[in-house]
Amino acid sequence: MLSFRLVDTDSFKQLISMAVPQYVVLSRHYFSKTAVPSLHNQVSDKIKCALCNAICGKVHLTTDTWISKHGQGRYISLTAHWVNVVVAGPQAESSLAHVLPPPRIAGHHCLPPVASSSYSASSSSASTSSSSQPHTFTTNFSTARRKCQQAILKLICLGDRPHTAQELWRGIEQQTDEWFLPVGLKPGLVVCDNGRNLVAALGLAGLTHIPFLAHVLNLVV
Fold this sequence. Notes:
The structure is a single chain. Helix 4 (about 165-180) crosses helix 5 (about 195-205). The protein contains six helices and eight strands. The chain has helices spanning about 10-20, 30-50, 125, 165-180, 195-205, 215-220, and strands spanning about 60-65, 75-90, 95-100, 115-120, 135-140, 145-160, 185-190, 210. The strands form two sheets. Strands 1, 2, 3, 6, 7 and 8 form a six-stranded mixed sheet that branches. Mean pLDDT is about 80; it is low at about 90-95 and about 105-140. The chain is about 30% helix and about 30% strand. By secondary structure, it is of the alpha/beta class.
C-alpha cells in the first residue's frame, strides 16, 4: 500500500542492504511498469480459469461504495463468489488438487455426479499457456467436493464523478461484461447495503439486491 518511490529512498536501500545484502534493489519504474503488471496478469489468469470451471451459470456479487478520506476520489468495489468442484490428483492424492469443469447446473445445492467418471481437467497454470493441452483423469472421484471461491474483480475509481445510480451502473456493467460474458456466466444476486443510489444502480442493471443486514445496521447506528 506504499508508493513505488519507497524503493528509491536511502532508508529503504539501507534496510535491504542489511537484511538481504545480495539483493539489488531495482528502480520504482521496474515495479510500476513490469513487476506489478506481471503479477496482476498472473492473478487475473487464475481467476478467469476458476470462473471457467464454475459449476453454476451465475456468479453472485458483493459490492460497496465509499469516498476516500484523502481526497483521492470515489470508489466502488466488486467481489465475485462462485463454486468449483475440486478433487485430489491421481498421482498425488493428498496434495495435488485439480479443478474439474463439470456441466453447468441450475441448482445451488446439488453436486454433479463425480464418482467413477472421466473429466477433462486443466490446472490453472496449464490453462494460462495456449500450447498446453487439458489432461483427462479417469478414476474414482469419491473425494470430490465443492469449494467456495471469491475474488475481488475490481476496485473501480470514479474520480470526482458522483455516486449516481447511472455512474455506479456503468461501473458494475463494465466489469460483469468483462469477466462473465467470455466464459458464459451471468451475474446472480448482489449483496450490499440499502443505499438508494446503489439499489437504483442494481435496478438499472436488472440485478437482484440482497440487503447486507450487518452493514445496514451499521449505517443506522
